[in-house]
Amino acid sequence: MIELHYWTTPNGHKITMFLEETGLAYRIVPVNIGKGDQFKPEFLAIAPNNRIPAIVDHEPAAGTRPLSIFESGAILLYLADKTGQLLSRDLYVRNDTLQWLFWQMGGLGPMAGQNHHFSNYAPEKIPYAIERYVKETNRLYGVLNKRLADREFIAGDYSIADIACYPWIVPYKNQSQNIDDFPHLKRWLLAIEQRPATQRAYAKAKEVNPDFGQATIRTDEERKVLFGQSAAVVR
Fold this sequence. Notes:
This protein is α+β, with helices and mostly antiparallel strands. It has 2 domains: 2-85 and 197-234, Glutaredoxin; 91-194, Glutathione S-transferase Yfyf (Class Pi), Chain A, domain 2 (Up-down Bundle), CATH 1.20.1050. 52% of the residues lie in helices and 8% in strands. It has helices at residues 10-22, 41-44, 72-83, 91-121, 127-147, 160-169, 183-193, 196-208, 220-227, and strands at residues 2-6, 26-30, 54-57, 67-70. It has a 4-stranded mixed sheet, with helices on one face. Helix 1 (10-22) links the parallel strand 1 and strand 2 (26-30). Helix 5 crosses helix 7. The longest helix is centred in the middle third of the chain and has 31 residues, at 91-121. 32% of the residues are buried.
C-alpha cells in the first residue's frame, strides 16, 4: 500500500496519474496547503522541504521498514522502478525519458509556477516579472512542441516524462499561452486528457478538494501561508 500525501496541484496530479495508470494500491492523505498542513511535524518528518507530494511505501520490495520519499520526480522514478511500468529498461529509452523528466523538474515546472504566481497570485502586478515568465513558459512550450512533432509521446511510448509534464500544460490559459500555437503539444495534451487513468486522477482531485480549479487566493492568511515562508517554518 502506498500512502500518498497529496494536494491538488500539478505536482500532486503527477502521482495520482501514475498510480491510476498502473493500478498500484494507494491511500490519499490530504495535505491542505492553504491551511498550513505542510508545516505539521508529521508531514515534515517525511517531506522536510514542506512541499507536496510525498509518499510512504509500506511494502518496499527489498526493505524491512516503510520507505518515505519526497519530490515528485523522485517519487515517479521510484514507483516506475517498483512496478516496472512507464519507464523502459532499454538503456537509450530510459535515459531519454529521464532527461525529459528532469527537464520538467528543472524548467517547465519552476518557470510555469513563477508564471502562475506573478500573473495570478501576486498582489502587485509587476510587468517585468510577468513578461519574463510568460515568455520563458512560451519558449518551453516551443521546446516540447518540437519534441512531439515526430512522436506520439515524449520518449516514444507513454511514460513518466509525459506524466510529469502534462499537469503543467493543463493550465495553459492561466499561463497566458495559446495552445493553438503549438499543434503537436495540443494533440499530445488531448490524447493524455482522454486516458481513463488521467480522468480518474483528476476526479480524485475534485473529491479531495471541492475548490479545485479555482485560481484565486481567498484570504490574506492563505496568501501568507502559501507565499510568506522563511526558514522559520522548518525549524
